[in-house]
Write a structure and sequence with these properties.
Length: 140
């Protein structure tokens, strides 16, 4: 893990190996940032969204050995939270049709249900960024 910034309301940028244990570590760092920013009310939804996005990147991003996953957590200018997960794979995620019998494939369905908005974009360098935004309004 490499920490770029972590104080005040500046974005928190961290880099992770593709090992499954990094999902829990990324969640811990997001929890710390939310507490620092006074945004703990978003914690449940934000942690679940982050878990799904980092897990997808670790499992499905087909990249050369040594490439890392980058997470960015930031307070949005108008309020709320933006979560980004960067990876070096150009392959775009696809939201699958909901199948109640499936044992996997629900990650983006969950993200779609919890986030105010989410999407996939270009990033500096190879790969993509998947982002999700949450507002501080009351969550279900």
């Amino acid at each position: 893990m490499e920490d770029s910034q972590s104080s005040g309301s500046r974005p928190v940028v961290l880099r992770w190996s593709r090992h499954p244990s990094c999902v829990g570590l990324a969640r811990l760092e997001l929890r710390k940032a939310l507490a620092l920013w006074g945004m703990s009310a978003l914690e449940d939804s934000a942690l679940l969204i982050l878990s799904e996005l980092v897990t997808n990147a670790a499992r499905h991003a087909r990249v050369s050995q040594g490439r890392e996953i980058e997470t960015r957590y930031a307070v949005r200018p108008g309020g709320g939270l933006r979560i980004e997960v960067h990876d070096a794979s150009a392959e775009r995620p696809r939201q699958r049709a909901h199948d109640p019998e499936a044992v996997d494939g629900r990650g983006l369905v969950i993200v779609d249900a919890l986030a105010d908005a989410w999407g996939v974009g270009e990033r500096n360098g190879p790969g993509k960024v998947i982002w999700a935004e949450l507002s501080e309004r009351a969550r279900p």
